[in-house]
Amino acid sequence: MSLKKKLLVLSATCLLSAAATAARADGLSDLKAALARLPGQSPVKALVEAKTWSRQGEGKEQEEQNGQASILLEDSPRGLQLLFGKDLLARLEVEERAREKDPKAKTPGLAAIREVNASELRPMISAAGNLTRAMEKAIFKTEKTETYNGKPARLLSFEIPVDKLTEKERKYVKKFEGSLDIWIAADGTPIASRMHQAISGRAFVVISFETKNEEDLVYGLSGDRLIVIKKETHNSGSGAGEKGEMRVTKTLQLQS
C-alpha cells in the first residue's frame, strides 16, 4: 500500500474513532435519558436514620448538640406514610419535658426529628425529579472519565449561577460560587452527586456574612425509582458576631 493510501486509511480510522468516542461521550444526554426511565412509581419501603451534629457560638458560649432518630417510611398507591416508633415518641416526650425544665438540656431526638419529615424524605425516594430540577438551574461545563469508589464512571460538572438565588438574596450578595458534580454509570444512571455553594456579602450596610453549603448524595435503584441511599449535608456560616455549623447524615435502607 502506498504512503498516500496508508495516510488516507489512518485518517479515516481516526475520524471513525473520534466519532464513536463523541457518541459515547455525551454523558448529559445519557443522564437525561436515564432519569426519564425512572418515573418513581413503584412502591418502596425503607428504614431511614438521621444523625445530626451542630455547633453554635464560640469560646465559653459555644454549644454543641448531637441528634439521632430513625423511622420507617412507605410510599405506595395510598401515598407517603411515615411510621414513628413508640420508643422514639416516648423519647421525644421525655426530651420535651426536660427542655421545659432546662432550656439547655440535651435533646438528641428533637434535634434530629425535623430531618425525617415528609418534605425532607420525599426527594430521597423520588430523586430523579429533584436531580432534574437541580440540573435545570445549572450550566453544564465539562465531562470526563473518572472512577467512583474504584469503579469506572463519568463525571459531569456544572456551574450554578447566582441567578439561582432569589432577587432579594442577590441584593446582599457580593460573591457567589456554586458547582454541581454528578457521577454517572456507562448507561447514564446517576451514581452520586455533590453540590457546593459559597456565599459572602453584606446586609444593612454594616453586617458582613459568609455561608458555605455542601451536599453529597449517593444513589441507588428500587424498581423504577432513583433513590438516595445516603445524604450528607454540611452547612456553616458567620455574621453579626455569630458563628454556626451543622452536619446531617441520613441513610436509607430498603425493606422487603
UniProtKB/TrEMBL annotation:
Q: What is this protein called?
A: Uncharacterized protein
The protein's UniProt keywords, in alphabetical order, are: Signal
* The organism's taxonomic lineage, starting at the top: Bacteria, Pseudomonadati, Pseudomonadota, Betaproteobacteria, Burkholderiales
Keyword Signal annotated: yes
Point out the signal peptide segment: 1-25
Q: Which organism is it from?
A: Undibacterium hunanense
Where are the residues of the annotated region Disordered? 234-256
